Amino acid sequence: MNGAGRSLARTGAAALGALTVLLVFVLYLGTLAPTVLYYDYPELFDPAMLQAEAAVLGIGHPSGYPTYMMLTHLFTYLPIGDAAYGVNLASAVYGALAVAVIYGAGLRLSGQAVAAAVGALALGVSPLFWSQAVIAEVYTLNALFVAVVVAVLLLWRDRREDRYLMLAALLVGLSLTHHLTSGLLIPAGLAFVFVVDRKKLRRGGLLLRSLGLFLVGLLPYLYLPIRAAMEAPLNEADPSSPGRFLLLVTGAATS
Predict the structure, then answer these.
(1) Is the pTM higher than 0.70?
(2) What percentage of the chain has pLDDT greater than the value 70?
(3) Which residues pair with 235 in a beta bridge?
(4) H helices present in 3-138, as ranges
């Protein structure tokens, strides 16, 4: 394929990806919860609390969700609906972005835009994922973090540039401040590097730089004790002492 053909193929792939993401986002918007989610339904207890906590920059139940609180709070400033709607909308945006990244990863793996679009759509319109993208919940942001880490590792596999490994380490640390299941990315990422180029794991300088960036990614945890000291209006698990902070970020009960 000549240069013009490759350029046309890239343009077509980008257009198909954009169309896929737009379709999913429109579906989410059309089914988005319009306002406050009430406690009347046990399955909506956490989403209702997250709406209130994100609106006032509160501290959630273990593990506190500092990254979610700070990012999602920004959506409450949008001049669309009320603050609760803004929090719901954040889930839809995170979900659509996760679909976009999955499309990109699928395209890199298969080289086939149609196959990548089908895979991304399969995730985006799956009942479970869709249900979490239209209410206040933490799972679409978690999916976005995981997808981005996987995409960066695939980019490193193809280009073998250390900066992508270090970026992946930073993102894993950041994702851990959102959801504890992201900790599984650590052994999975190390296994991936071992399979692709195990010599990287013997480079002390690279490992130290990556560890440093991983620790930088954990900085959002500072939000928890700082916000507690500011007497946050909603504080489900007060992390005001080192012991309580440790219990909170490890997902243990603190009551």
Answers:
(1) yes
(2) 94
(3) 59
(4) 3-30, 45-56, 66-73, 83-110, 113-124, 127-132
